[in-house]
Design a protein that fits this description.
By secondary structure, the chain is mostly helical. The mean pLDDT is about 85. The protein has one domain. Strand 1 (about 20-25) and strand 2 (about 30-35) form a beta hairpin. It has helices spanning about 45-50, 60-65, and strands spanning about 20-25, 30-35. It has a two-stranded antiparallel ribbon with strand order 1-2.
Length: about 80
């Protein structure tokens, strides 16, 4: 687990090598960044790096999900 910094990291005190994951609403005064140690070569810590991805669906599954279902009703 990534160690969180003791001090709240804002745009003015975020340093090189610190996680840039935004926390909160930028319009609010308590907006800040994670600030934990970045994963090597990444803008985020390992926890936020894994959260930043949505697994892709295989192309056939995505196409099948986009097709409308055909419902056939039998005559009574």
């Amino acid at each position: 687990m990534t160690t969180k910094p003791q001090k709240i990291k804002t745009l003015s005190n975020l340093e090189a090598g610190e996680c840039r994951w935004p926390i909160g609403d930028p319009r609010h005064a308590d907006f800040h960044f994670c600030g934990a140690k970045q994963a090597e070569g990444r803008p985020y810590c390992i926890e936020h790096w894994t959260l930043s991805f949505v697994p892709s669906k295989p192309r056939q599954a995505a196409q099948a999900a986009a097709r409308p279902l055909l419902i056939v009703k039998q005559a009574a």
